[in-house]
Amino acid sequence: MSDLPPLTVAGRLDRVRACFARAEIDSLVVTDLHNIRWATGFTGSFGLLVVGEHHSTLFTDSRYAEQAPAQLAAAGADADVVITAAIVAEGAKGLARVDRAGLEADRISWADQQRWSEAINATLVATQALITELRSVKDDAELARMQRAAAIVDETLAEATPMLRVGTTERDLARFLEDGMRARGASGPAYETICASGPNAARPHARPSERAFIDGDMVVIDAGAMVDAYRSDMTRTFVIGAPSETAVEIHEIATAAQAAGVAAVRAGVEAGEIDRICRSIITDAGYGPQFGHGTGHGVGLDIHELPSVRSGNTAILQPGQVITVEPGIYLPGVGGVRVEDMVVVTDDGCRSLTRYPKEPLCPPSPPTI
Amino acid sequence: MSDLPPLTVAGRLDRVRACFARAEIDSLVVTDLHNIRWATGFTGSFGLLVVGEHHSTLFTDSRYAEQAPAQLAAAGADADVVITAAIVAEGAKGLARVDRAGLEADRISWADQQRWSEAINATLVATQALITELRSVKDDAELARMQRAAAIVDETLAEATPMLRVGTTERDLARFLEDGMRARGASGPAYETICASGPNAARPHARPSERAFIDGDMVVIDAGAMVDAYRSDMTRTFVIGAPSETAVEIHEIATAAQAAGVAAVRAGVEAGEIDRICRSIITDAGYGPQFGHGTGHGVGLDIHELPSVRSGNTAILQPGQVITVEPGIYLPGVGGVRVEDMVVVTDDGCRSLTRYPKEPLCPPSPPTI
């Protein structure tokens, strides 16, 4: 991955501080490891970041005595490192003169909040979505990794096409895809790959089973890769052999809804508007109740992050945000379809990072061996 | 995996209730998904279990409308299922007449604790390690899965031995091991496989890199598999080519320390005593400061669970608990060694689930191709 532009975090801690006034805090205790990674470049599995009004400190343990300072320096983070076996106690010392300390309320356990409450005198303020909101806008180095992750899945899925035949099991195909991602340089899948066939395709979160494909099956493949901890997300639906009229119909509707949703993505639009557009097309076609989940979500260091592309979300899309658009139609006992791309929001529209074609629904039969 | 005895949860909810008096609660809100799985058999990714004095209810959403009741029935769980989009609001209704509701303080976010605080009138009590302590003792069906997971890694590591040669990269070997686990029926690795070579072997949590093995490298392989969500954990250390005197010495010391620790495992012994025994052998040999982590931990649905096998832990080992014994010696810039087995505590000793041999340190050179 050495051909990718280096990840830098310069300026991010200042952008965190710029949120302090609105959040009514004068210091922020960051416990979410992806938030710490985003703000400092530190990739360890144990640490705590205290962002003060003037300087910031990362607390971690002796396992990371070499790694932590090296990663912060390489990423351009303006923060000190303290190596300690007692991160809360040490972190608390730096907050002795703070009035209102923010804690990431949805990323810290109640037990840890109680520990902080005992350790410092400051008022604890529950912050929500402070760094995660900043994280939703990606810079070029982040986008390069997500583009690479998406391209790896495009290529791997192309290689897997001959497996879309009678007899292949869901698990065989999922394993092939995950192996293929790794062989192309991904650190692994971005989430557990979904290969849902026949009646299983009616369940949006089905896990790969030993079920073998039979003629006429719809097969929903939902796959993403991870490159430098950044993730991709894409779904395509295929049919094994000859498709039923129903399969053709719901695939056409979902594809049209997805295309309309993607066409509406642009900086300045409300996230909920994308959901409304996709949903209205599916509802008008008579399948509204069969589309039971939100239209999409942000992607980055987490597979589900801000913004949520769901009904009623008034958050305004911003340039550089990466979202999925993934309407589906699910017919219990019969099958289902979902079509998903991951796109970058731009000033005048969006750019899709996932590029695998959505047609043909039935891949050409491979030669019988 | 159909040859494994079925997992049942019968009686577990009553064992949870039996802890109520000591915890001073009359109801428990279970948010940890592994705790929910253990208590009910439900494997979904979203849910909430309320254990009352007389009956229990699992709340989950429409994705699991079929799966949840089926899994609870199959596992023999005495609990109802409520399908809802608002699990906190629905769960709160059932707690209207409760005085003291336990929340799993280290498994619930502060934000969610605040939601519960607003939703119910009962006093919220922070419980710690209530179900996780029960979970630490495994029944035969659980042990069968952990034994299978351990055997899968034993076999896969044996198959990988020819790769212990100059030129293999850490990542190649890690990928081979993880693929081999899946090919043998594991759902995946139990954690990210560690293959740490040369100076990387001095870092206990090194991640596989593109570093290729060179002559004289110590290589620490820490690998586990997952079968039906139950995990295994094992570490072996090898040397590529001819070992240095240092490598031979620290491997002998760590192996002796590990054997002494395993020999001391028995129901009725304090967990901390196992750490003391391993550590004293390494310290007496002059490498105390180079053994910077705890001796082991419980394993099960989580890779790190109770009991913690660390200095000062006075918890008494119980029959059916599964723990690791994994002392190591790490020489920064040079290399390192760790030797680990996963054992079941019995009344008169223990039984190792991991069985790969610890010798020879240098596997026979494979023929040059």
What's the SSE blueprint?
The structure is a homodimer of 369-residue chains.
Chain A: H1 12-17, H2 20-23, E1 27-30, H3 33-40, E2 48-51, E3 56-60, H4 67-75, E4 79-83, H5 87-93, E5 100-104, H6 110-119, E6 123-127, H7 130-135, H8 140-160, H9 170-183, E7 188-189, E8 194-197, E9 218-223, E10 225-227, E11 230-231, E12 234-239, H10 245-264, H11 271-284, E13 296-298, E14 305-309, E15 322-325, E16 328-331, E17 335-338, E18 341-346, E19 349-352
Parallel strand pairs in A: 1-5, 3-4, 5-6
Antiparallel strand pairs in A: 1-2, 2-3, 7-10, 8-9, 9-12, 10-11, 13-14, 15-18, 16-17, 18-19
Helix pairs in contact in A: 8-9, 10-11
Give a verbal description of the structure:
The structure is a homodimer of 369-residue chains. The first copy, chain A, is an alpha+beta fold and 369 residues long. Chain A folds into 2 domains: 124 residues, Creatine Amidinohydrolase, Chain A, domain 1 (3-Layer(aba) Sandwich), CATH 3.40.350; 213 residues, Creatine Amidinohydrolase (Alpha-Beta Complex), CATH 3.90.230. Helices cover 32% and strands 22% of the residues of chain A. Chain A contains 11 helices and 19 strands. In chain A, the strands form 6 sheets. Chain A has a 6-stranded mixed sheet with strand order 4-3-2-1-5-6, with helices on both faces. A 3-stranded antiparallel sheet of chain A has the order 7-10-11. In chain A, helix 8 packs across helix 9. The longest helix of chain A has 21 residues. The relative contact order of chain A is 0.12. Chains A and B meet through helix 6 and helix 9 of A and helix 6 and helix 9 of B.
